[in-house]
Amino acid sequence: MTRNRISLLLAVLLLLVAVTAVSGQAYTTSFITSITYQNVGTADANVTFNFYNEASGTAIPYSVTLPANAGSSLYVGNVSGISSGFQGSAVMSSDQPLVATLVQIPQSTTVKNRPLSNGFSAGASQVLIATVLKNTFNTNTKFSVQNVDTTNVDITVEFYPTGSSTPITVTETNIPPGAAKYFDTGALSQLGTSFNGSAIVKAVQSGTTTPANIVASALELQTTNVGARAFEGVTGGATTVYMPTALCDFYGTTTYYAIQNIDNTNTANVTVTYSNGNTDTKSIGPGQKASFNTCDSNSSGFSGAATITSTGAEIVAIGKVGGAGRYTAFLGETGGASRLALPYVRWTSDTNYNAGTRQRAFIAIQNIGTSTVNNVQVSYMNKNGEVVGIHTISSIAPGAKANSKAIDATLQAGHSQTELDEFGTPDANPGGGYGGSVIIEGPSGSQLVAVVRISSKVGSSVVAEDYNGIPLP
Questions:
Q1: What is the reported pLDDT for 83?
Q2: Structural domain total, the chain
Q3: Average pLDDT score over residue span 253-259
């Protein structure tokens, strides 16, 4: 029987016993990973997790069963065999297709952001990390590279400083299958006292020149404040990239785009076109990155989407959101799908939200096709895979976005309003427990992308984190 595999890069420092972090520093905070995952197949999924300590090829197994369409979560701190100080990766395999989003839970009284990133169904011999920082904007980057090949691999990381086409090179050898290597820019002397740029990671089978498959994820962690965000490395670029959300001082929140030219020879001439027609243009040298601020081209209060185009070279892009307590990141998309999976979705009442005990998910859906898409169905499913509500979006114009949340949905027969008002929480799920997921479906041939923003209240402030919707066949 065919086993579907998903590669997972866990927290940069996953401790089962909380440690004391320097007050106010996300960079010194420890995290424990919760893996939220969804069975997007048609039958019960028999799921096996194999966990690997850093640079170790010895698996720590854990198995579960998950009904069709159901969503669940695994708190890695509760897995037998994983001890305090574990830092590593995992591979999920199943007889049904799965999707997964990682939630990094801070072990801190001050750091409240819970960075989000998606698992990978495949790797490549080259991975691009569009933005890398060391002691820049009071932020350091920690990223991990996982071997998803069948043999040991050697990796080379080329760090490109902003404004330079000459890389700084760091290597690592003999990483076993399934295992990962972690890179902390704050500890990399090769980058000097500070660094602002991007990275290209390449892999070969150990001791050869034969390309090997890898994946990568990154955390950006503030060194003097509490912000923490995550995003995935990507395996290729494009000349058109779509951003499902673009904000300028929208309730105090602004979107920024970090755009990397992945060509080592040619300059990329980049234009960001916002959904209101406004544009911003910059040239980016070979291997370099540039930053775009939505407010440079839009007035305060703008909320929309963006399309990024490049001539001369392919690019990759990361969206970042800042202001009003938000500190998030998401990937620019190079293509869409008519069906998207969102493994991690929640909603809760004003009382629970304002108390900071539960979260709310806000979904932004962009139509990247060339014609209007009608009757987009957003199906909200409980932990058992039952559809408790459907939000029908009547139309989304080309390049535009629409929004959805659980309480926008129409309650389905046999379910109670509480299941939407407290979606994904123990109050809503049969038998209790957390777990809520969404399937977005447009007409056949439609091209949709989505970003989910998970928002939490902390006192009078709000923190948030983002992840991308996952395309389905």
A1: 83
A2: 3
A3: 96
Q: What is the pLDDT of residues 425-438, one digit of tens each?
A: 999 998 888 999 99
> For strand 240-248 and strand 228-232, is the pairing parallel, antiparallel, or unpaired?
unpaired
* pLDDT confidence of residue 10: 67
Total Cβ atoms within 10 A of residue 229: 28
pLDDT of res. 23? 40
User: Is the domain of 324 the same as that of 458?
Assistant: no
Average pLDDT of the chain is 92
Say if residue 24's pLDDT is above 70: no
Domain end among 295, 330, 365: 330
37 and 145 belong to one structural domain: yes
Sheet holding 45-53, edge to edge: 4-9, 88-94, 45-53, 59-66
Mean pLDDT of 305-331: 93
Where residue 6 falls among pLDDT bands split at 50, 70, 90?
A: confident
Same domain, 25 and 147: yes
Domain that includes residue 190, residue range = 4-232
Residue 15 pLDDT > 80, yes or no? no
